[in-house]
Write a structure and sequence with these properties.
- 2 copies of one chain form a homodimer.
- Chain A is an all-alpha fold.
- Chain A has 13 helices and 2 strands.
- In chain A, strands 1-2 form a two-stranded antiparallel ribbon.
- In chain A, a hairpin with a 7-residue loop joins strand 1 and strand 2.
- Chains A and B meet through helix 2, helix 4, helix 5, helix 6 and helix 7 of A and helix 2, helix 4, helix 5, helix 6 and helix 7 of B.
Chain lengths: 311, 311
Amino acid sequence: MSLAVAASGAGHYVKMVHNGIEYADMQLIAESYDILASVYGLSAAAIGDVFAAWNATELESYLIEITAIVLRKRDATGGALVDAILDEAEQKGTGRWTAQSALDLGVPLTAITEAVYARALSARRDLRRLAAEAFQRPAQAPLAASPSDLEAIRRALYAAKIVSYAQGFEQMSAASEEYGWALNLGEIAAIWRGGCIIRARMLDRIMQAYAASPPPANLLLAEAFRNAVAAAEGDWRRVVGLAVASGVATPAFSSTLAYYDGLRRARGPANVLQGLRDYFGAHTYRRLDKPGVFHTRWGQDGEEVAAGSPG
Amino acid sequence: MSLAVAASGAGHYVKMVHNGIEYADMQLIAESYDILASVYGLSAAAIGDVFAAWNATELESYLIEITAIVLRKRDATGGALVDAILDEAEQKGTGRWTAQSALDLGVPLTAITEAVYARALSARRDLRRLAAEAFQRPAQAPLAASPSDLEAIRRALYAAKIVSYAQGFEQMSAASEEYGWALNLGEIAAIWRGGCIIRARMLDRIMQAYAASPPPANLLLAEAFRNAVAAAEGDWRRVVGLAVASGVATPAFSSTLAYYDGLRRARGPANVLQGLRDYFGAHTYRRLDKPGVFHTRWGQDGEEVAAGSPG
C-alpha cells in the first residue's frame, strides 16, 4: 500500500480514483482533439463544434461540454486561445497515486496510467523539440472529415471511456476488498452523477449496472456497456489504426483497446512468459491438462517433474 | 519515493530497473509470439525457428535464445510444451516497484508498466473466460507469413525494445539525479552485458552511446538507435496496425509506439488539458507567445488576466 493510501480512508480513496478517472477522461479528449486537428486538419473552433454536438449524445458530460467552450474561445490575438496555450500539462499527484495503488492491488489500470505518463511526456518540452528534429513526421495532406469519420471517433471515445471506467471501478472494488471498506459502487456512481468534474450521463448506466443482482464482475460485462462496446468495436479499431498509421500518439485509445483485446482472450500468450520464467529461474508453471505445479529440467535431461509449490 | 525505493540503495535500484526491463522484454516476446500464432497461424515450433533466426541478428540476446528453446520443446504428450502451459503469469514485485518509482519521478515508463499490467490481466483467467464469451472474436483465416512479414515483426520488436530501454535508462538517470547517486549508465550497460537475464548485443550500443561526449539526452537520440528506429518505423506501424485490426492485444508494442509518436511532437495536445484545467479549477496556463502565467475568467467576463504563480 502506498503512503498516500495508507494515510487516507475510504472517502479519500474514492476521491483519488475520481481524480484518476478525470485524468483519463481528459487524455481521451485531448487525443480526440489531436486526431481531429492533426489527421483531419480541423481548426480549434471547428473541433469545439464537434464536441458541442457530441454533448447531445451518450457522451454528455461536464468535461465534453467545457471542452467545446474552451476550444471555441478566442483570445485577444483574434485566434483560438488553445492555439496559444503552452502544451505542457501539470499535475498535482492524485493521478499518480491512483496508478501506484492499482499496481499494489494488481489491477490493470492502463488508461489512467497512460494519461499520467502522457502528462509527464508533455512536460519534457526540450526533449520533444530535439526528438522532433531527429524524427521528422512526413508531411501528410489532411483527410476530409466525413460525418462517418466524426461518428467513428465519437464511438471510439465512448468505448475507450467505458474501459477506463471499468478499470477504475475494478480498482475501487479490489481496494474495498483489500482494505475491508464495503464500498457501494452504485452509490459512488450516484454521488459522482450528482456533481463533480466527471459528472456524466454515462454514470446513470453505471448505477443501473450495479443495481443488478448479482452485479457484473466487470462493467464491460454489464449489458448496456457490452452492447455499446460491441457496436463501437469496428470504429474503435479504425480510429486507432488511423492514428497509428498517421503518427498521432493515442496512448489512452490504444491502451484501452489492448486491454479490451486482452480481456476477451480466454487463452492469452502468458504461457510463453511462464515457460521463460521456468527456464531461467525455475519458477515452475501449471498446465491446462492436469493439476499440480511443474518444472522442466531444461539444462539437464529435459524431463518435466512435479514441483512442490508455485515459485 | 515508494517504500521499496526508500529501503534500498543505488545498487538495489539498478537491479530493480533491470528486472523491470526484463518484464518488458518478455512481454514484447510474448506479443510477437501472439501475432505469429494468432494472425499467421504458426505453430509453437515454427515460431521457435523464427526466434532462433532472429537470434543471429541485432536482436541477439539470452531471452531471444531461450525463447527459441522453450517454444521448440515438446512434452510427454508429443505436442509443444507451451501449448500445455497455463496462460497466467506470476510476478514477484520488482516490475511493479519499477513502475511505481517511475511514477514518483515523473518518468514516462510505458513499456514496463504495460508489461506489469499485462501480467495482472493474465491472472484474471475467470474474468477473461467470461469476457471471451461476451465479446467473441470473429473467425479470421490465418495470413500467410512471408519473409517480409517476419522481418517487419522483427524490426518492430527491435524498435519497441529500444524505446523500452530508453525509458528504463531515463528512469535510472532521473533517479540518480533525484537521490544523488551519480550512476554511470554506460557502466551499468557493460555490467548487464557481462551476464544477466537481459544480456544482449544491443547493450554494446548502449555502452557506446553513453561513451559519447556529451551523452545523449535520451537513448533514442543516439545515432545507432535513431537510425534503427527510423528504419523500422514503417514496419512498426504496419505490425501494430495489423494487431489492432486483428484483435490481438499488443500493449507493449502499442505503448512504445505511442510514446515515440508523443516524444517526436514539438507541439503536443496538452494545451487542451491546460485549458480545461484552467476552466474547471483556475489552475492557470502559460502561453507560447509571451512569458508569464495566465488565467481566463471563464465564468465572468471571459477576459484573460495575468495570474500570480502556476497553480
